[in-house]
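Holo model, copper (II) ion. Inputs:
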Amino acid sequence: MQHESALEAREPPVRAIGFVRRYIFSVDHKVIGLQYYALALVAVFVGMALSWLMRIHLVWPNWPIPGLHFLSKTGAPGNVMTPEYYLSLLTMHGTIMVFFVLTNAPFAALGNYFLPLQIGAEDMAFPRLNMLSFWITFLAFCVLMSSFFVSDGPPISGWTAYAPLSAVGSAAGPGQGMGQTLWAISIGIFCVASLLGALNFIATTLDMRTRGMTLMRMPLSTWAWFITSCISLFAFAVLLPTCILLCLDRMADTSFFVPSGLVISDRLQPHSGGSALLWQHLFWFFGHPEVYIAILPAAGIVSHVLINGLRRPLLSHKAIIFSMVAIGFLSYVVWGHHMFVSGMNPTSSLVFSFPTIIITIPAAVLTLTWLGSIYGSRLRLTTASLFALGFISMFVSGGLSGFFLAQPSIDIYLHATYFVVGHFHIVMGVAAIFGVFAGTYFWFPKMTGRMLNEGLGRIHFWGSFVGAYCIFMPFHYLGMAGNVRRYAAFVDDYMAPLMSVHRFITIAALVMGIVQMIFLVNLLYSLWRGPKAPDNPWECTSLEWATSSPPPADNFGGRSPIVYRDPYQYGVDAAGKDFVMQNEPFYAESASIPHLAEAAEAQE
Amino acid sequence: MSLSHVIPSKPPLPRGQRDNSALPPTRDDKPGKHLDASAPEPALTGIWVALATIAMMFAAFTSAAVVRQGASNDWEHIALPALLYINTGILILSGIALELARRTYLNGVKHGMPSAKIAVRWLTFSLLSGVAFLVGQIVVWWQLLARSVDFISSPTNSFFYVLTVFHAVHVAGGIGGLVRIWVKMRRFDLKRSTLNATCWYWHFMSVLWIYIFVLLIWKF
Ligand code: HEM
Ligand SMILES: [Cu+2]
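Output:
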């Protein structure tokens, strides 16, 4: 049947050769993972620099910041930023952090690198699509950054781009012309990239697992990436149409989001009948799942790292997986808790409040499983496991403040204050980034073949941990005292008692920034000079450690591993080791099972 | 890889872990070489996932339209051009032709006597009627614009164009896919999974269009 084979034959895998094909337009998931990581690293430092500018302006509003007018002549005359330009920087900070850091680093970067390795695959299911996803993301980043260079600068409507402010064009203020248009286009492009990426992750997890790798044998990090890609698939599928409608309102004068009779600067706007609430519903339908897109991969990575440090599996593997799945589903029915004070029907507030409280149950199951597993263990305190502990601490602190916000009656007071800012920075920003740090310290040897410096790592951890609490805990007090968010300056009489808190926060933020430089130095120095890493420095059980550091282009050197067991066989007594790798052929008695014996021979 | 290392005896099981090392291996040894019929086909999985996303995007547009309709009293009725019915018929015919092409081709393959010529003929018909659908949609827009049913004068119009154009863009992508399998089928190096994936996509375009059309008749 020669036609049968003609029909089913596969093209041989394309292997990139030249420099450009190998490092720039590479189809290798490992290179693409590193590219995402590098992009996220650039983005996080840009975002951090913006936050410094904002913090400095808040407490010393009249200080000129040298060189600021190069960024914008109209936005910072005499190097002092205008209130509007403060909002521009705020918008860019939030957008960069949420999309290009929190969505990219834990999911696209580390996931791309390690998901195929952990399931024993040669590459992603669609390598070329994978490359495309990265470059589309890169394009989105460039479009977003270009708004710094258009005449009246980046938009001022915040990362949530509420309509009608975002929909009416330059009448609404500086940055709302070209800047906001670029924002909407950039996010639309980002959605396309994320959808393609999620598709690739799902197909890879379902179809590319190596022999013996059942779904329940996948490490928790892979589970988290898989669940996250399912969430992304539907969340970004709503944000993309939303961005399209926004662009149409802005460019074609349709009226999806702009209500009738809106007068701005004495001019009646040409739109009529649109619904500003519609924007909020669509945006938050994406927005709440988005926060789990940021946090779930971190939770998976932290579980993976933590188990390795604990040298024993978590109390329950399944509890973690099912909780993450439950969070994934529930994340779609809570979006209204962002809209308690939006003028939405109060009954809806009540309706959205219930699932918001219920979603804390799987979150609590995760936390209790981690804590219960740590209890009474002898944790190996590597930098990676320190960051894993830090993640849990942040997840708990941020989750607790969420409880308060979930009550509509309390949220009426706290909404749009610094309390919310404290809540989401701790639970989404810091926690997810701690997850990325845990993953970085853990996997750097695999990615580069070199070890990171643990001493610097510890300094980095303690600096970040203490720093994060110093910055974000006081935000809660400010919020309870009535300090509103998204203001460029605070009026003296009522804010005066709070200014010392603000000053403390700003100083903490600057110190925290310097601590991050230690991380950068560690990263770059270890890349050149770090001690050579062995294949499995942490004595880990999963497949990414069953190949060389860094792995060869086809991951496992022309063969693929066979998986014999659950992912976390630690705390066993196996010929002097306390762990058994997933692909290690088997114990003596299973040798009597014929197909396993064959499999072992095939591997030899 | 430390595979030569054989562990002498079964280690005690850690808490919470089941030893299912006796589970049969589930995959062929070499990833990417799934030759048996039950092997997973990433192309098909990928298409299914893509269809889920596309469905979600249209769900988003639909719910936006419903909310917008309730938001103010400026929702107007559009008298739909009769051509839309003809276009619908053409798209359905295209789907049927594609299904015939698929079956003919796969049947030919199975019996070792390729009826590729007939299959290609069906495929050509499907492709051309797909293009005819697109052209028909363009004529519809043109007719409506001539009746000054323009994009911005009412939310009904806006959503009409958004839904139909967004669908047409996806149909255009599907036509690209059809051209691709047309070329491959003529050269007789079309893989089963590619063919099936493209067919799923194209059939979904018909289903999606019928959904949109019903929505238009009912709400617009
Ligand atoms: C543990 C359960 C959680 C509850 C009950 C909860 C509850 C809430 C509520 C009610 C708000 C709206 C407050 C307002 O705007 O007035 C909110 C805001 C927010 N939450 Fe949570 N949350 C939880 C966990 C999380 C997690 C895990 C993340 C991120 C990974 C997160 C990220 C955010 C963000 C980004 C915002 C604010 C967005 C903005 O208004 O700009 N939350 N949360
Ligand atoms: Cu939320």
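Chain B touches chain A through 71 residues (CB under 8 Å). The two ends of chain B are 64 Å apart (CA to CA).
Archived with the compound record.
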